[in-house]
Every structure is written in C-alpha cells, then in structure tokens.
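In practice, a research group might receive sequence data for several interacting partners and want a quick structural hypothesis before committing to experiments. The following worked case mirrors that situation: the sequences arrive first, and a predicted assembly follows.
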Amino acid sequence: MSIKRDILWRIYLSYAFIALLGLGILVQATRVQTVRGSYYRSLADSLTTSYRSIDAIRGNIYAADGSLLATSVPIYDIRMDLKVDGLTSEIFESKIDSLGRGLSQIFGDESGREYTRRLREARRAGKRNFLVKRNIDYQQLQQVKELPIFNLGRYKGGLVVEQKSKREMPFRHLAKRTIGYALAGVAPVGLEGAYDRVLAGEGGKRLMQKIAGGVWMPINDRDEIAPMNGDDIITTLDINIQDVAEAALLRTLENNAADHGCVVVMEVATGQIKAIANLGRDSEEGGYYEKYNYAIGESIEPGSTFKLASLMVGLDRGDFKPTDSIDIEKGKVKFFDRTMRDSEEHDHRNMTITDLFAISSNAGVAKLINQHYGKNPQLYVDGLRKLGLGEPMNIEITGEGKPLIKDPKGKGWSGVTLPWMSVGYESRFTPLQLLTFYNAVANNGVMMKPYLVQEVRNFGHVVQQYKPVVLKDQIASKSTITEARRMLEAVVEKGTGKNLKSDQYSAAGKTGTAQVANDRYGYRESMKYRASFAGYFPADNPRYSCIVVIANPKKGLYYGSYVAGPVFKEIADKVYASIINPAMEEVKKEQSHRTIVMKNGAHQPAQVVLKKLGIEYLEKASDAEWVTAVSDTTSLALEELTVSSRKVPKVLGMGLQDAVYLLENAGLKVVPMGKGRVKKQSIPAGSAFRKNQQIVLELS
Amino acid sequence: MRALLQHIHLKGDKTIWLIVGILTVISLLVVYSSTGTLAYKARGGNTEYYLIKHGSLAIIGLVLMYFVHHLPFRYFSRVSQLGLWLSVPLLVYTLMKGTNLNEASRWITIPIINQTFQSSDLAKLALIMYIARMLAKKQEEIKSFREAFVPIILPVAVICALIAPANLSTAMILFMTCLLVMFIGRISLRYIGLLIITGILGIGSFVFVSYQLDLFRAKTWVSRVENFMNTDVSEEAYQSQQAKIAVATGGLIGKGPGKSTQRNFLPHPYSDFIYAIIIEEYGLLGGAFVLLLYLGLLYRVIRIVIKTPQAFGALLAIGLALSLVIQAMVNMAVAVNLFPVTGQTLPLLSMGGTSILFTSIAIGIILSVSRESEGDEAETETQTPVHATA
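A structural hypothesis for the assembly, expressed as tokens:
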C-alpha cells in the first residue's frame, strides 16, 4: 500500500501543477481583456470593418460635335497570393514553370525562367500579395486567367486582380496639351486639370466588413455614400478644324525645322476656341508633339502684328487717318542712337498709313507714333489699354502667361521704348491674348472672352452651360474698327499677305516677323525669328479669327507671310469649304425620315434609351452584352452582336466610345478618323490580329 | 436518458462520459462557427461540409471509445509493445516522405482508405501505454538505473527524437509528459533531474545545429519563440495578435455562439486557436468552463487511480489522462499567448481529423480501467456528481 500512497502524492503534486497552469491561463486571458483590452478591441474594429472607398467613373471630354476626346478604359494590376490554402506544393511545383513561360509569352518583357524564379522566391517568402504585373489590358487579363495555376481561381490559384482605369485619348495627340491630364502630385495640365473636380466626380464610401473568404461585404445601406460619377465636359473644340490646324502646323514646323509653334482658331461672334494646336520639337528624338501650351502659356513680344494696335490708338483718338501720308525715309529712321529699319531695304519715301501698314514698315509706324506721342507716351499706353490689351483672359486652364505693357512712369522706360513698342517689341502678350484683340476687331469692336468649355453634362443632362462672355463692349469707335479692318484687308490684298489671297473668299490679317531677343547678346546678334500671322476670315463677314506663331524657323525663310501665313490659309480654306460655304454638303442631309437609326453598342444603355424615348422595340438579344439595332420604317429590333475577344470585334455602326472600349480592351490601338458612327474598320471583324496593332476607324 | 445509457451498456466513470459528451457538443458548435472561412475558401461556401465531416469523425470516435472501453485493459499491455514497434518505422517513413502540410512532414496517407493521419498520434499513444507497462513491471526495482530507468527512457528518447524534426513541440510535450509519468511511477528523481538537464542541452544543441544548417523547421521555431519574447505590441506576430483580439473582444460572457469575427482573421481558428474563438464567443466564463472540464476529467481519473488495485491500470489511466490534459493546457496557453505558438490541437474540441480517433481510444482505455475497478455494483453510484458538475 505504501507504493500506492507514494504514487498518489506524486499524482496530487502533478495535479496541483496542472491546476496552477490552468489558473495561469485564466489570469492571462483576463489580463488580455483588461490590461491591453481596449487596445486590442480598437484593433479589432479597425480590422474587421472599414470604410472602403468606391471609385467614381471619371467623366469624358467631348469635342463640340460629340467626338470623344478623352475617356477612361479599364486596366488591371495582377497580383498573386502565394499562400492560399488550395495551392499545395505539389500543384505549385508541377505547374510553376509553365506559368512562368505563359506570363513571359503574354507580356514578353522577361524570360519565363525569370518569372518562375520570382514566383518561387515570393512563395518562399510567404508573400500574400505579390505583384506580378501592372497595367495590363483586358485582353491580357483574359489570357492570364487561362494560365496554369491561375486557372484554378482565386482560392486555389491565388490570382488577385485589381481593376483601375486609364485615361485614353481616342484622337491621340490631337489638342493633347489642351485636354491635358490630372495626376496626383503633378501640377494639373489642360482641361483635365482645370475641370478635375467636375470630371473626377466624388468617390463613394461604404462601411464594409471582412467576411469569410476575405471578401468585403457592405454592412448596411444607410452608411453608404454612393459614388457620384464625374460629369462630362463638352468643349468648344471642333474636331475637324482642330485636325486641319494640327496637320497644317505640323507640316509647317517640319518644313521650316522650327523649334515650336502654335495655332488658335476662335469663333468671332462667341469667343469659342475652335482649335488650339501646340507643337514643340522633341529635343532628343526629333519630330514634334504637344509639348507645352504655347498659345496660352507663352507670353512673347508680338512683333508686327502689334502695329494694328498702335495705329488704332491714333485712329481712335483722331490723331491721324489711314489716308494720311508720311515720309518713311527709305525704311531707316533714327531715334537717338538707334536706327529703326524695315525688314527689307527699299526706296519708298512718302506713303499712306494704310500702305505702310500693308508693307509692314517698322520705320513708318515708329516714326508716326513717336511724332504723336513722343512727348506724352502715357496717351499711347492708355490708348492700348482702352483697346482691351494688357489684361489676362482668365481662360479656364491654368498657366496663362501674363501680359506686359510698359509704364512710361515705370522703370525701364527710355527714349527708344515708345518707337520699339509701337512695332511690337518691349511688350509681351500670349498668342491667345493677341488673338482675342484681333477677334474683337473682327467682331465689330466687341471683345469676347475666349473659352474652351461650353457645357458640363451628367448622363446627357446639361448641368452647366457656359455662354459667351463680353470682355469689352466696344474697344474702339465703329469708324476706327472699320478703318482697321480695311487696313487688315489691304495687307492680304496688296501687302505682305498677298500670298494668302483666295478666289473663294477674302481674308484679312497681319503678318509678323519678330527678332527674338537672345539672352546674352540682345537683338543685335540674334538670328532667331518668330514668324506669326493674326487675322480672320471671311473679311466681309468674319466668322473665324486665327493666330499662327512659329518660333525659330531655320530654313532661311522667316517672314510671317511665308512661314505662318500658309498655315492660316490652309485652315481658312478648309473651314470655308466645309463650314462656311458647304454648298456641296447640303444634299446629304435629306435622309432622315422616320427610320430610327441606332448605333451598335452596349445592351443595357440601349434598352434604357429606347424606354426613355418611348420607342417600342423587339427584344431578340435577352442575354447579350452588345447589341445591334436592326430597323426599317415600321419596326426596330435589338439583336445580339457577337463580340469575340480573341478576334477583332465588329464595331461597325457603333459610336466611338463603345468602339474604342471594345477594341482597346481587345488589345488594338484605335486611330479614329472623322466623326459619327463607325463606317469602316481597317481590319475586318473576325480576323486575327497582333497585339497593339493599329486599327483605323472611319467615322461618318 | 438513464434507460438509454443502460441500454447501450455505458460503463466506467459516468462523469467522464458526461465531460466527453459536453466537450463534443461544444466542439461541434465552435467548429461549425469557425470553419466558415475555410468552407468559403475550399468548399465554395458549403458551410455544412466541415460540420458533417467533423461530426462524423466525432461519432466514429465515440463508437470507438465505447468499443475500447469494453475491452479488458490488460490487453493494452501487449498492444503497447506492438504499437511501439509499429510506430518506429512509421515515424521514419513519415520523416522521409510525408505529405507536406504547413511545411512539416507529419502526415502519412493510409493507402487503401486514403485517409491521412499523423504518425506521431499513434506513437504518442503507444509510448504512454508502454511506459505504464514498463513502470508497472519494474516497480520492484524501480529506483535502479540500469533495471528501470534505462529500459524506460530508451524508447522515450527514440520516439521523441523521431518526432522532433517534423514537430518539435509535440516531441517536447510528449517528453515532458513521459517524465511526469515516470516521476509518478516512482522513478528516482535524481535520474529525472539529470534527464531534464540533458534534455535541455540536447534540444538546445539540436535547435542550434538545425538553425545553423537551415535544417528541418528550425527557422520557424526560433521565430516563433522570438515573436513570443518580443514585448513590442506593434510588432507582435499576426497569429498571437489576432488571438489576443479574439480574447479581448470576448468579454465576460462573449459575443454569443456563431458571432465570432476573428475566425476570419485567425489562421486555423478551428484547431490551433479554437480556444481563442471559444473565449470570443462564450466569454471568459465559457473559457473557464472548458478549462474546468479538462481539470474535472483529470480529477475523475485520479479517482479511478485510487480505486484501481493494479499498478498498470493506474499508471495507464493517469498517463493517458495527463498526456491529454497537458496537451489541452498547452493549446489554451498558446491561445491566450501564455506560451509561444505551437501547432497543438485542443483534444476533443479541435477539428483534427484522425487525431480525434486516437484521443477517443485513449479515453476508451481510461474508461476500461474505470469499468474494471468499479465492478458492476458501482455503476449507479457515480450518478450523483453528474448533476453537481452539470
């Protein structure tokens, strides 16, 4: 029995030891609840529930005719959870090589072996969110989902897909700088930047809880802040004029090996900017691209185009008349120690003001202005301000260059300031500011504020409309305006702008050839020029005004008339033919009877539209994602449109936005031409294609 | 109820049966609650899948327990020898080519029924039984080094050494349990003390060498202990942090059955960290109740030991009970972050596949000892404390 007793006390001792451990467990549990309890409880709240933001869809930017200038398309980041329960070593090891190879084939950036190595390493490190590839498109994503391991799905294969969106500009470079961009941490550019608030919409917030399977579920509806999708903005840009302007500018820059240039086309009556092209040379690769918004941002000495303002000051004050004659001294007039020369040597002496303006005589204008205002330059400067010059335009997009008109009482005013100022030096204006002034002359003296956005829309509803704004009711008397316009017409009729004459219409404007001050040597040693042309057309009933500025043409020609003028003429010719006098086009418009014509496109919006309009239709495509509308005079039917992801989708009849979405998602690069619905696609539907292959869409 | 119990000839300590019954019910509740996440991940949202699987195993376990408790316990003396001889090659085989789960080769698959099981579960059971047998046999010369200590410590050392590479914590717990049983079985304290020192040195050098050569799972062991020692709250290991959140949010009475949120964050909420989920759902009170059930189980086994005349029966019962309760204590201590993270399941509560069956066999053996010590007339006597406990 002693053995048993001996065993028993040992058992009791063990029991006491274990009971003590049990007590320790309870004490520790209590400690966790009390001592650090609040910390862990707050941690729990932050872990299990959180406000998850829901992205709003950014609005589109449209041209005036509805052409899509900027839109958002989805792109994806793919990550891999290498510790998912279902991904056993057996599966991983047997398939990792083919996964690596597949990734390499799809993206072509790394070898399959490198992909495999990285994934193995990530698995060893137990990564749950390993970044495989950023910014892949929809088509690539579909391929990735088919790869070994990834085809097992989220919980066995560990594929994690994150959708983002990418801004796409269907017309590529067209007005790119003006459309601009808005990126976090970068100064906003263009309309995207200026209207970022409007376009971005407002992200929603939703209180969600993490539930089984790592899925986030909304807790309730009440706490939810629905995302407000961004509004669309309708610009004043005319895609056709923009296209012509950009093309003409590019050709001229290339022909003259110029540094950079810009073109702005404005509608005379409203101040709407119809086209704005800015091209700068790529310093490394050559070629030109939308580098900087010179038209709005670059404040420059205007050169001869400014002579109009100088003469208008005198005309409006009644100090001289266009018919007055003065001696221009063979184009060489001395002011103190400096001589004002005309750009070309000549023997002319007595000339009317109209004529000396037409040949752009520096000596003549400088002498005339100095005669009248040399004693009291303030009168001249006040006159300029009265013309509406020297004020910023406050255009929507940021970065407008500041105008500069020197003050006679201020520093830096000397005896030669006035004559040089009168011919376009010493002051600074942006091309847009100068154009606004010319536009006012064309608009019978009413100065319109230039603007780029005419409407903000939300799902087709107009949210805000921007009407033309008058900056100055009358910049000069009617007679002065008439005289000024006669003089501008004379420039094209018989002066430096002779080469711009057209049989179809008359144009008016002024050439400008300014020497560009060299930083080190001033004007004297500088061989850099800036050629410009500012004017409007048609001369008798102005519809559009336009300014062209070409910086530093290098092929020997630097006169505004030869370098900048042809750009103006090309734009004017096209615009006149297609918009102002489209006699040929009239015939086309007679088709629309009662037939309902509908673009091909996404199914659900089509239903919504038809329902809203109260149009009866036959539903023949109940489950389809994309539909085509088949119609005659009596009925309308929606039929399924088969869109294959591997082959080129059929986009005939679609609107540009739907077409771009489909094609770019399929991996094609879209080059649209024209406007309206897709009439022709350069690669036929159903044919195979290379990734990033270009497809040209003809719209009509 | 009593009629039913009598009908199926439930013998042995009724309180133990009751404790097993209560634990099984709690187990079903908590496992059902905590396998939701796993069911979503692996079974496409079929949340009943694991409940049914676990429930079936629990029932098979009970049947096995019932069957075993009707066997005369002296059979297990021989069975232990057999089990031990079977364990050694199985453990070696497992080490060589086991199914890799969580990077530890612990599992082997039985060919025909295609069921995986941890060979260490079998070895553990066989070893404890074998020690009980040896201790009982050597009682006459129990203080002898050569006659008693060596023959007993040798199989312990071999089995633990074979388990250690894949599952160090199980090996250590088993080793400690064996020492405790040897202490109870009156092995000289001198030798045991000596053994503890060599054990510490042995394990220390084993871990050191493995760590240096990056063998086995040495990095995991060291990082787990490092994490445990680390007092900086912001850097604490994910698992322990999530477990503490579960404990902290449970409060006194818990969130209620099935209301756990931490089950979505805790890895293995249905096995390694089931106790944290129990505290989260049933509060400190629920946690204490579960802990008392295990202590109650051990207490009832001590009662059996007192009643059992044979040394083998007594040592067999207390050895198996200690093994089970110590494992439970370690699991609970890990869940409340009293111990560093180990992969121990909570016996009778965790969803653990085949280890449930081994636990059931162990309890069956204990009940068998109880049945024989009580005799037939004692059957109704134990009814009274049942009501007291419930």
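Before designing any experiment, note the following. The two ends of chain B are 15 Å apart (CA to CA). The first strand of chain B starts at residue 99 and ends at 101.
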